[in-house]
Design goal:
The protein has two domains: 50 residues, 5,6-Dimethylbenzimidazole Phosphoribosyltransferase, Chain: A, domain 1 (Orthogonal Bundle), CATH 1.10.1610.10; 270 residues, 3-Layer(aba) Sandwich (Rossmann fold). It is built from 14 helices and six strands. The longest helix is centred in the middle third of the chain and has 21 residues.
């Protein structure tokens, strides 16, 4: 694959943003994480007072052959059914995105069966679902590279047509917490049992089976933890690779990328291993109840903005965090300084 050239964070824009925060009509540091958030976004965008006009959440769907091993509480056909629900505007992500003033772009990156002819659906299907990685690799290496490149091209095309200022990542795919747990174990060196959770709300028995299936796959395929493409090839997911591509392309364009939960963070860490400068462009929206999510966030050195005991996916956490990101930037640009407001500063 071609190298990923992520521009360095703009230290000057960060310094100017920090100076402005310190001169606004408030005690130093009194807006806490909101101040840090505004400074981070300034460095990402290269502007000391960034503005957000267009917000897009990419909800990327794909199926997983490993679902045949009984690792989910829902049947595989739910993936395609939820894609239809997204396009009709009836899912949680649609409600929250409307509330946040964000667009939802639904992508079929590998849903099983033929692609539905639905208005608004972006079809970028490398193959109709992954192989059952309990028995065979999830995909070929060339397919893993293609799906990442497809995510890159999709974002670039949309951004060229009308610039995007803030990107949220979302996912849909029955079986994708199994793939994400496998990738998390590989990329962080964590035991499978520590990173594997209940996903769709499985029973204790199914959870134990899920752990067994992942351990079997890692033992059978022996993915190379130092080669992220090999990890994606052996035990990954098509939506995970596509989301990694979106993150890489957005960062190359200096657009902040907001991760949702466990699956998008697995995609985020995968992309970070391909481009070590990427974490500077990532914002963690929330901490999922999936046990592997906190491990992924620590690996990327990201602090989540919210902890609402969520585990839905779709981009719902990203949509909620858009409010905080925009609040931070509006405070940074619209609050008056002490001199503008005629307010005495500390010690005066």
């Amino acid at each position: 694959m071609t190298p990923f050239n992520i521009p360095p964070i703009d230290q000057n824009a960060q310094a100017l943003a920090r100076r402005r925060w310190d001169n606004l009509t408030k005690p130093l540091g009194s807006l806490g994480v909101l101040e840090d958030l505004g400074i981070r976004v300034a460095g990402m965008t290269g502007s000391p007072t960034p503005t957000i006009r267009r917000k897009v959440i990419f909800t990327v769907a794909a199926d997983h052959g490993v679902a045949l091993e009984g690792v989910s509480a829902y049947p595989q056909e739910v993936t395609a059914q939820m894609v239809a629900n997204f396009l009709k505007g009836g899912a949680a992500i649609n409600v929250l995105a409307r509330h946040a003033g964000a667009e939802v772009m639904v992508v079929d990156a590998g849903v099983a069966g033929p692609s539905a002819a639905m208005d608004g659906l972006i079809v970028s299907k490398i193959r109709p679902g992954t192989g059952n990685f309990a028995r065979e690799p999830a995909m070929d290496r060339s397919e893993a590279e293609q799906v990442i490149e497809s995510g890159i091209r999709t974002f670039q095309k949309i951004h060229r047509k009308e610039p995007v200022d803030l990107v949220g990542l979302g996912d849909m795919g029955i079986g994708n917490t199994t793939a994400s747990a496998a990738l998390t174990a590989l990329l962080t060196g964590s035991p499978v049992a520590e990173v594997t959770g209940r996903g769709t709300g499985v029973t204790d028995q199914i959870l134990l089976n899920k752990i067994r299936v992942i351990e079997l796959a890692l033992s059978r395929h022996r993915p190379n933890p130092e080669d992220p493409i090999d990890c994606l090839t052996k035990v990954g997911g098509l939506e995970i690779g596509f989301l990694a591509g979106i993150a890489l392309a957005a960062a190359q364009a200096r657009v902040p990328v907001v991760l949702d939960g466990f699956i998008t963070s697995a995609a985020g860490l995968l992309a970070c291993r391909l481009a070590p400068a990427l974490p500077g462009y990532l914002i963690a929206s929330h901490r999922s109840v999936e046990p592997g999510h906190g491990i992924l966030l620590r690996a990327m050195r990201l602090q989540p903005l919210l902890d609402l005991q969520m585990r839905l996916g779709e981009g719902t956490g990203a949509a909620l965090s858009f409010f905080l990101i925009e609040a931070s930037l509006k405070l940074l640009s619209e609050m008056a300084t002490f001199s503008e407001a005629g307010v005495s500063e500390k010690g005066q």
